[in-house]
Amino acid sequence: GDGWLAEHPEAEQITRRYLANLHGLARQALDRLNGQEAEGGDAGTMESPRKATLHEQRLRVVLDHLKGSGAESVVDLGCGEGKLVRMLLQERQFRRILGMDVSYAELAKAMRRLHYEEMAPKQHERLELIQGSLLYRDARLTGFDAAAVVEVIEHLDEDRLQAFERVVFGAAQPGMVIVTTPNAEYNTVFETLDAGAMRHQDHRFEWTRAEFATWAERVGQEFNYRVSFASIGTEHEGVGAPSQMAIFTYET
């Protein structure tokens, strides 16, 4: 797996399947992928810092852009189990945080992991978690400085993207929208993916860099947003980085 497995979005699942029923070896393999010393190693050896996963890198890049924007209110659209929400809560800059997901099960998981019911009153005042769809206008999404849409659009049918655009860029209209999605060109680096296959069974599409840029630029023109692009993860010659990001800034 050298050179590709550590950054694969399903690294843990691939490792456990390959080392099925050999849990100790699986744990050691995952530790090595993460840059840690395997259990039972030399106690006197200094452990290497764990290498951030692609998902962790992605969230950190998004958080840095949100902080740099000066935003004080952020909505995480498709918040899942709340990993980005947790990071936002750790930053005093963000006075109002809304996490929305279509899945009640994911929201329940987020509440447990964030200890939502036991939060201190001041923290609780900053955060709200709601169930909702990105395909229908929702007044609760308006009035935010910024929105994060992290690895979400590829789970929507392409013919429903215009509804998503109207909801987020048209109706909610935050000052900044950050969208990340897989870079389909990078899939050739993942040796476990068959040609033409996508990274996750629930993905409806995965775009090349040119396809993503075409979509983002059209959305920017239609809804009056300036667009810039960035890569996330280690660049690979000829195919770019594993994730791609568009930063939309509303032009007043």
Can you walk me through this structure?
With about 250 residues, the protein is an alpha/beta fold. The protein has eight helices and seven strands. It has a seven-stranded mixed sheet, sandwiched between helices. α7 links the parallel β4 and β5. α1 runs antiparallel to α2. About 5% of the residues have low confidence.
Give the tags.
252 residues; seven-stranded mixed sheet; alpha/beta; globular; 34% helix; 17% strand
Terminal Cα separation, in Å? 48 Å
| Molecular shape | globular
- N-to-C series of helices and strands: HHHEHEHHEEHEHEE
Number of helices: 8
Helix proportion range: 25-40%
Q: Describe the main β-sheet briefly.
A: 7 strands, mixed
> What is the rounded Rg?
19 Å
Which percent band covers the strand fraction? 15-25%
Mean pLDDT, nearest integer?
A: 87
Q: Order of strands across the widest beta sheet?
A: 3-2-1-4-5-7-6
Which parts are unreliable, with pLDDT below 50 for 5 consecutive residues or more? 35-45
Report the structural category: alpha/beta
Give the oligomeric state of the chains in this entry, treating copies of one chain as homo and distinct chains as hetero: single chain
